[in-house]
Structures are given as C-alpha cells and as structure tokens.
Amino acid sequence: MALRDDLRVTLRSLRRAPSFAAVAVLTLALAIGPNAAIYSAVDALLLRPLPFPAAERLVRIESVRGGEAGSVSYREVEDFRALDRIFVGVAKYTDQGQYNASGDGRPEELPSTITTHDLFRVLGVLPRLGAPWPAALDRTRDFQLVVSHELWQRRFGGDPRIVGRSMTLDGAPGYTIVGVMPPGFAFPVRSDLYRSHGISPDAAAYEDRGNRGGWAVARLRDGVTLAQARQALDALAGRLEREYAASNTGVGYRVTPLRDLYAGDARPYLLLVLGAVALVLLVASANVANLLLARVFDREREIGVRLALGASRWRAVRLLLVESVVLATLAGALGLGLGALGVRALATLVRAELPRWLSIELSGGALLFTAAIALAAALLASVLPALRIGRGELAPVLRSGGGARGARGASGGVRQRRLRSALVVGELALAVVVLVGAGLLLRSFQALVRTPAGFDADALLTFRVELGWRAYPGLEATARFHRELLARLGALPGVQTAAMLDNLPLSGRPRTDAVIALDGQATEAQRANPYVNVRVASPGALAALRVPLVRGRFLAESDADSAPAVVVVARATAARLWPGRDPLGARLLVGSADSTERPWRTVVGVVDDVRHDALSAPPALDVWVPYAQWRSGGAYYLLRTRGDPLALARRAPELVWAIDPDQSFFDVRPMRDRIADRVWVPRLAGVLFGGFGALAAALAALGVFAVLGYGVAQRTRELGVRQALGAAPGDLVRLVFGEGMRLALLGGALGLGAAVGLAVLLRHLLHGVGPLDPPTLLAVPAILAAVAGLACWIPGRRAARVAPADAPRADW
C-alpha cells in the first residue's frame, strides 16, 4: 500500500514537471539504447555459447613453420587421433568455397565444406536423417554428401526419401546424399554441403605429409587442459620431425579454442566499445543526478513540511528512489527501442560472414542487461540527492521565513553549486576519455587504409569459378579452360587486362601454405624455413594487379607445362630466404621433398610485397607459380577496366557459360569492396567510439548548461545588485562564462590524465599512430573548449539581461 501511494505521489509530481521528466528520460534513453545495442553484439560474438555440446572442449589445430601459420595434412590428423589420452576425436576440414548444383532444379551456388567422416561426431551433432559416410570413403574419390537442413527444405522440398539420391555438382554427376543435418547447424561458417574428404587412394598421395590443406578440429577429453594439449602436440611435432624430416622439419602445431575462430580479431574492439558506451551511461547518470539535485533544491520546503508533519526521512528518500525508478523505467523502454534500431544498424555494418547462430539480435540476455543498466542508472542518479535528504540538511527550511532560497542562504547555495559543479567536472572528464579513444581509433583507421596493399585495387572487377576435378581432372584441362576464358575476357570492350589468380589478396580466403627447401640447404637449416604462400597465377596477373617488378621478369606465356619450372618471389620472401644475396637463378623446392610431383623451381623474378591477410598484418611470404605448371581448379579472375568495373558484371558470366554451360560463376565484386571487408572491425570501432564521444560531449555540455542556467536563476538578486553597482552586461557574461570554462578546464585536465592510461591500453589496437598522439591530445581539449563555450553562452546572455529592478523581488 505504501509503495502504491509513493507511486501515485511520484506520477502526480512528474505530471507537474513535464520538462524535467522529458529531459531526464531522454538523457538516460540516449545512453541506455547504445548500451543495449553494443551488449547485443558482445553477447552474440563473445558470450553466447557455440551450438555444440560442451563447446568449450572444442579446439582447432593448425601447423606452424618459421613463425607462419599453415594447414595440416591427412596423415598428421591421423597422428592427432592417436593422442587418445588428449583428444576424444579429431576431424579434418577445408572451407572449400562453392559448388555449382545443377540437374535437379534451378542451378545455384552452394557453400561447401570438405571434411572427414568424423566431423559431426567431434562437434557432437549428428545428421537428422541418415548418417555420415563411413571412414573408408575418406580415402576414395567416391564422394558422398551430408546436406544442410535448409538446402533439404529449399531444393528438395523436405523429401524424407532424400538419402540415397544423387546430386550433380560442377557438371559432374554421382555425388550421393547420405544425410541431412538438423536445423540451424553450420560449420565452420555457413555450408549447404559437407563432402567426404576424398584423398586419393594412391598410397603415395596418402603418405605425402607435405600435402597440407585445411585444419583439424578436435574435442579435448574431460579434465585435459589447453596447456596439456599444447605440450602433447609439441612432443608429437618433435617426433615427426625426427621421423619425417622431408615434410616436418621445423613444423610445429598450434591449438586454440574454437571460439577464437569466430570472434578472435573483434574481441578487443568489442570490449573497448562496450567500455566506451558504459562511460556514456555514467555521463548520462551524472546529468540526471544534477537534474534530481536541482529538483530536490527546488522542493526543499515541500520535503521539509513533510518531515515536520511526521514523515520519516526514509519516506522522503523512498519517494526520491521511486521517482528515479519510474524515470529509469520510462528511459529503459525508450532505450530498448533505440537499442533495437542500433542492433539493426550494427547487423548491416558487420561485413564479416557469420554463422546463423552468431546473428546480432536483442536476445533475452540483452533485455535483462537493459533492465539492469536502467536500474543501475536510476540508483547512481539518486545517490547524491538521497544522501542530502538523509543527512538532514533540509531542517533549516522550516525555520526560514523566506522560502526555500532564503533557507538555504549563501553557504547552502555555495554547497549546492559545488556539488553540482563536481558532477559536471566528472562528466567532462569522462567525455574527454571517450573522445581521446575515438580520436586514436579514427586516426588509426585512417593510417590503416593508407597502408600500401602492394597492388592497385581501383577499377578491378573480380569473380570466382570452381573447376570440378571430374570435369577438369588434370593440369592440362584446367590450363586450357583458363587460357580460353582469359582470351575471351581480354577481348571485352573496356577491359585493359584480364588475368587469373587462384587466391586474391585480402579476399579472406585461407592462404595456400607450403613447406620449402633451398637447393643445397642442410636439413638443420630447413628448420628455420617458413611456410610460403603459393599463388597460382596467369602471366598477366601481376600486371593486372600492378604489382611493381623489383628484379628479373614476370611470369610469361612461355612458362608452359613442358618448360622448366619457374617461380617469382616477393621481396619479403627473397629477404627471408636469401638475405644479402641475389635470388635470381636460385632454386627451391615448393612442397614436400619426398613428393615426385614437386619439381625444383628456378627464381626468375622478384616483385614487391602484397598483403594477403590484412592491411595491419605483415606481407605474406609469396611465391608466384604459372598456372600452366600448377593445377588450380578454384580461381579468381581479375578484369582491369577503363571505367566502372561493375559494368562488366553481366558480360563475364556469358563468356564463362559459352565455354562450359555447367560451370559455376560467383562472388562478383569490385576489389575495393574486398578491401573494405578486411578493415570493417577497426572502422566500425572508430565510428562507434566517435559517435559515443560526440554523445558524451553533448551530454556534458548539457550538464554545463544546466548548472550555469540554474546558477543564474538562483543568483538573480546578486546579478541585479552587481548591475546596480555599475557592472556592465558584458561583465556578467564574462562572470558566468568564466565559471563554466573553469569547470571545463578542470574536467579536461582530469580527463586527459585518465585518457593517457586508456591510450596505453589501446596501443596494441592502433596502427600507424602512437598512444600519445599529439594531434589527438591537442584536438580533444579544443573540441571540449568549443562545446563548453557554447554551453556557457546562453546562461551568460541570460545573466546579462537581469535588470537591477529585478533584484529586490528575487529570493535569496
């Protein structure tokens, strides 16, 4: 009953002060909304468990050589399985890309994953219909498929007799469907097809440990730690190096939680942005606390009368708390709406392809978080006003004959101004911290996009084809297709250069890592050799990318299958393998030394470095080999155009299908878009930080405006007396302006001190910018001074308009 009475009194009081209620609710909502949106992203990418049983036991294993990460071979996966005291199961998988499905409906591109039979058992999710293929099929070319639930519904109408049916992929029939996964299953990102591994049954191919491709996903045994798994893999690497020196010299293994596969790069940025938006919430809470203090000051006589009539101080405090909770509830509802809009905007700004179960949405956890921060904001905002009531500072009101202002007197007014000014100083300091963080991240992003990628991305159209092994079983068949299509593409109007490359730089696709050996190099010296990134390219690829030639020559049409095996190396590769020496004419083996299919290659050219993984990462150690000397079924085509690249997007497929009507064609994009996909995380962090910094600065300015405006209203008599004694209106403006700028100066100084600590924490996320970046540390105080000056201007003008005749009518 008492709580209901308090609620009725609070609602009646707020109806009498609609401006106060509106400003308080809007202030809190503007901070709660971004908090809800950012928490939704953090929840999706960092907190939400992976949709696999005991997902915390799942890890990914990759190889490492010379400090460079790489893939694993089928035989190495069998070695991992033998560590049965560490792993319950181990599966190998490769994110293959796309298959072109035809023959039983509309042709469509289907994302696919090539894997061993035990992937589903390792992940703990078995097919809903059917079963995975038997282990024996991992070593045959009799491919079998497990399809996604979504593909089963979309393409096959949910036919319960689908098990045993055949699919035609990339023009080749005979892919048998043996299972259908449950709804929502996706691994590693999004796949409609899971195809049997299909390593050649040939014994030499099976035993080739240098034939690396893909990664291993493993499930740790209960009680086994990540550190123990790493120790076991280190011991295995040492044994394999002794037994298989040709393929495993210098090769180690790295094991990481599977969760890091999805959000490892974004984790520090997300947590940083969440911290920034939490600071904005503190600024908003301080603002509302200021409003509540002003409201308490104005209601001192009312509260004092209640106390004199027998109301307890707890009842007065409780009324204040109920009012704060009501305001926070309204703000939480409005903030939730703003958060929903923010989540929708975030989902469109995230350029990475994420699994369905990592979708950013307002989940139940986000709703609870929104309610919690709304309540926390209410409590933070009401602490100081509640303490003022609880300490009994309102008793003098009843002994005064001059109303509330008279009761407060000069000393009370000074205490009020100091308290409210302290809150504003805190707001300004927090705003400075957020603004410095925003400035550093935005400056870092600008430096990142100016980082030379090693190639010219302008006016480049790119698309991908996948040449199936059945339709194009060998090197000659794939080279013939590439040669014919390049000739047709090069003849298109508006095309300057047409080229083929198996893997584009900054495409987001894994590198083709290979072990190497130098001619005459001792086995011990091979331990330091890194993995190199093999790029299979047409003769015009480097010219199409406009990669500068450093020495020697580019790949040429004369580098045919029957010609001597050659290679062009990147500058970083040459410096790493032949330090201080001319690499031209040197020979190296790309691939395992015990493989007869890997001839010694002669270095005929050195080109500039090209960044593959990210603009912020070091250049890859590239070796460029001719497409006529190294089979590549999957290939990107590059068209250097004279105008808009997308103008050719419709013509290119016609030429592909003129050669092979069943050939897949997909992923048509300008190269500039691919680069944008690789820098979206730091760009988004900078934009969000900048937006939150602007919001924090605006809220802090509102706080300055409220304190100074309230002070002018409270000091009407004093200002009128000053005018009567000869003060000019400009003097009163300077008085108010000076008071506001002193607050800004103090808040700015405190904020810069805290921002230095933030900058040091940010140093690992910055690119091309130091943590104590002078332009940022100079610009933020200037912005703060401008914002504070604007906030001081209106109260200053109001003070200048106080007439001496108003002074006798004003209360103290």
Verbal overview:
- This protein has 3 domains: 55-258, no CATH class; 268-323 and 348-450 and 680-809, no CATH class; 468-662, no CATH class.
- The protein is elongated and about 105 Å long.
- α1 packs across α12 (313-349), α10 packs antiparallel against α14 and α21 runs parallel beside α24.
- It is built from 24 helices and 23 strands.
- Strands 14, 15, 16, 17, 18, 19, 20 and 21 form an 8-stranded mixed β-sheet that branches. The chain has a 6-stranded mixed barrel with strand order 3-4-9-6-8-7.
- It is of the alpha+beta class.
- It is 50% helix and 17% strand.
- β7 and β8 (172-180) form a beta hairpin.
Brief overview:
With 812 residues, the chain is of the alpha+beta class. It contains 24 helices and 23 strands. It folds into three domains: 55-258, no CATH class; 268-323 and 348-450 and 680-809, no CATH class; 468-662, no CATH class.
Task: List its traits.
812 residues; alpha+beta; 3 domains; 8-stranded mixed sheet; 6-stranded mixed beta barrel; 24 helices; 23 strands
List the uncertain runs: 394-412
Largest sheet: 8 strands, mixed
The total count of helices amounts to 24
Chain-averaged pLDDT: 81
State the separation between the terminal residues, measured CA to CA: 39 Å
Query: What is the tally of beta strands?
Result: 23
Topology, pairings included?
Blueprint: H1 2-16, H2 18-47, E1 58-65, E2 68-70, H3 74-81, E3 87-102, E4 108-115, H4 119-123, E5 129-130, E6 144-147, H5 149-156, E7 166-169, E8 172-180, E9 193-196, H6 203-207, E10 215-220, H7 226-243, H8 245-248, E11 251-257, H9 260-263, H10 267-298, H11 300-308, H12 313-349, H13 364-390, H14 403-449, E12 460-466, H15 475-490, E13 495-501, E14 513-514, E15 516-518, H16 523-526, E16 532-537, H17 541-545, E17 549-552, E18 566-570, H18 571-577, E19 587-590, E20 600-607, E21 622-626, E22 634-641, H19 651-659, E23 666-670, H20 671-678, H21 680-714, H22 716-724, H23 729-762, H24 774-800
Parallel strand pairs: 4-9, 6-8, 16-21, 18-20
Antiparallel strand pairs: 1-2, 1-10, 1-11, 3-4, 3-7, 3-10, 5-8, 6-9, 7-8, 12-22, 12-23, 13-22, 14-16, 15-19, 17-20, 18-21, 19-20
Helix pairs in contact: 1-12, 2-10, 2-12, 2-13, 10-13, 10-14, 10-21, 12-13, 14-21, 14-23, 14-24, 15-19, 21-23, 21-24, 23-24
